[in-house]
């Protein structure tokens, strides 16, 4: 990809920033066990889950504020939501990175046995996720971090998800996980592609074309899953069920199915693709607020069952919104996030 040239001074500044953030991230694993910290904090205090929740709120506020601040005066509210797409990817990246520090053993078991040094890779990937997510939220080389995040997920697909699908081809959950990671990856890559010379001059890029088709297939796949299992929590069709205190369980599942299938078909045939991606991304954001957050509140102390559910779905919303921004015509490219 023909990305913009980075001058030496900016690179040195970025290196210093990454070095500082990396040291801070690595210290997270040991912070909760530090004797000085334990003496200063109440006995009931725990970094997990306090740190992830506080981090999520702060980064969302900062990231959304920065994104909206960069919106041109003529931008409407929906254009501003689209500009927040990268933030909806960056914030969960940081949260997933923290998971690598809080649950290194469980995450290490996911790594294929033939790969050596599991502990190293758990902390290395966790640190990369934290740094990359902060980069996107703070809009510092966000295009580079998004591109690397997309490539990393493609590596995970090749190393873990695709072999898992081959080993268990009849497992709906494994298929959903595989399709989910592909959608996350190509959504991030579509954002990175907006900073290439080809996109700046022609308003398009082959990565965006691939992303449009991948996300189209993913939405259709998810839509069929919701049609067959309308009781599942709207967003990403995994194992979570819609909370019983929310009315009309099946109705929401079928509505999600219709929205996903219609948007996916529009993306695949490239008709009203920008409009379809825009409203599909907004609908997924709606499911985060209306369904995933109430589901999270049932398990406030369990990050895996709680916070990670809206975080996962938020990434899907961000990926679709990033695609929506990438599908703009050149004449509307002034709204893109640099």
Characterize the structure shown.
This protein has one domain. It is globular, with a radius of gyration of 20 Å. It has 338 residues and is mainly alpha-helical. It contains 14 helices and no strands. Helix 3 packs antiparallel against helix 5, helix 7 (118-137) packs across helix 8 (142-167) and helix 9 packs across helix 14 (308-326). Residues 1-15, 17-40 and 329-338 have low confidence and may be disordered.
Report the span from N to C terminus: 16 Å
Low-confidence stretches: 1-15, 17-40, 329-338
What percentage of the residues does DSSP assign to strands (E)? under 5%
Q: Structural class, from helix and strand content? A: mainly alpha
- The shape is globular
Mean pLDDT over the full residue set: 86
- Rg over alpha carbons: 20 Å
Number of helical stretches of at least 4 residues = 14
User: What is the string of SSEs from the N terminus onward?
Assistant: HHHHHHHHHHHHHH
Total beta-strand segments = 0
Looking at this protein, list some descriptive labels:
338 residues; mainly alpha; 14 helices; 0% strand; disordered C terminus
Topology:
Layout (H helix, E strand, L loop, with lengths): L7 H24 L3 H6 L6 H23 L7 H7 L1 H18 L1 H5 L9 H20 L4 H26 L4 H22 L3 H6 L3 H23 L20 H21 L3 H25 L10 H19 L12
Helix pairs in contact: 1-7, 3-5, 5-7, 5-14, 7-8, 8-9, 9-11, 9-14, 11-12, 12-13, 13-14
Compact description:
72% of the residues lie in helices and 0% in strands. The chain has 14 helices and no strands. Helix 1 packs across helix 7 (118-137).
């Amino acid at each position: 990809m023909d990305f913009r040239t980075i001058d030496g001074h900016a690179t040195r500044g970025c290196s210093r920033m990454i070095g500082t953030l990396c040291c801070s991230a690595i210290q997270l694993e040991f912070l909760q066990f530090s004797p000085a910290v334990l003496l200063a904090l109440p006995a009931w205090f725990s970094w997990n889950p306090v740190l992830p929740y506080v981090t999520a709120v702060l980064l969302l506020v900062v990231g959304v504020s920065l994104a909206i601040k960069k919106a041109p005066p003529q931008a409407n509210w929906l254009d501003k939501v689209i500009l927040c797409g990268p933030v909806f990817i960056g914030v969960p990246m940081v949260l997933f990175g923290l998971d690598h520090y809080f649950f290194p053993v469980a995450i290490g078991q996911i790594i294929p046995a033939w790969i050596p040094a599991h502990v190293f890779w758990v902390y290395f990937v966790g640190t990369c996720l934290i740094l990359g997510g902060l980069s996107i939220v703070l809009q510092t080389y966000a295009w580079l971090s998004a591109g690397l995040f997309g490539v990393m997920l493609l590596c995970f697909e090749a190393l873990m998800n695709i072999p898992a699908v081959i080993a268990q081809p009849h497992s709906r959950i494994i298929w959903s996980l595989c399709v989910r990671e592909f959608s996350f990856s190509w959504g991030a890559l579509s954002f990175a592609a907006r900073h290439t010379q080809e996109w700046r001059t022609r308003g398009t890029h082959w990565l965006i074309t691939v992303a449009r088709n991948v996300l189209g297939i993913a939405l259709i796949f998810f839509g069929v899953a919701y049609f067959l299992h309308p009781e599942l929590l709207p967003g990403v069709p995994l194992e979570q069920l819609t909370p019983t205190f929310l009315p009309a369980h099946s109705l929401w599942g079928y509505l999600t199915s219709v929205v996903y299938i219609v948007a996916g078909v529009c993306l695949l045939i490239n008709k009203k693709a920008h409009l379809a991606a825009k409203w599909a991304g907004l609908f997924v954001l709606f499911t985060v607020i209306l369904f995933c957050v109430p589901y999270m509140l049932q398990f406030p102390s369990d990050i895996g069952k709680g916070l990670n559910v809206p975080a996962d779905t938020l990434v899907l919303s961000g990926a679709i919104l990033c695609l929506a921004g990438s599908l703009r015509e050149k004449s509307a490219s002034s709204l893109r996030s640099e």
